[in-house]
Amino acid sequence: MFRTAARVVATGSVVIAMFGSALATAADAAVPLRVKERCGYLEWGKYRHCDGGTGSHVMLDVQDIWGAIYHYCVGPGVTDLQPVIRWRVTGAWWNGGVGCDPGYYGPA
Description:
This protein is of the alpha+beta class. The chain has helices spanning 2-30, 33-36, and strands at 40-43, 46-49, 58-64, 69-74, 77-80, 89-98, 103-107. Residues 1-26 form the signal peptide.
């Protein structure tokens, strides 16, 4: 009886290990590499908008070195905010706006 119980436990462990690794492999294959990269402000005036494949555009508040805030709408992917803002960009965050036309909207 002990041998049978040990065999059942060992077989169950192997099946669970095989099933778990198959799930991990399938999950890794289904997730594109770009999703694993960091979203949000990336430093040096760049912002990555991770939209999950929806194609959405979002409004950001962008802050310069002097603390001034500007509005900038971005689409999916990485956007370089720096060329439009006169002073060095030190941060950017989503302000809740959705569905805007991409581009610079001016001071807040």
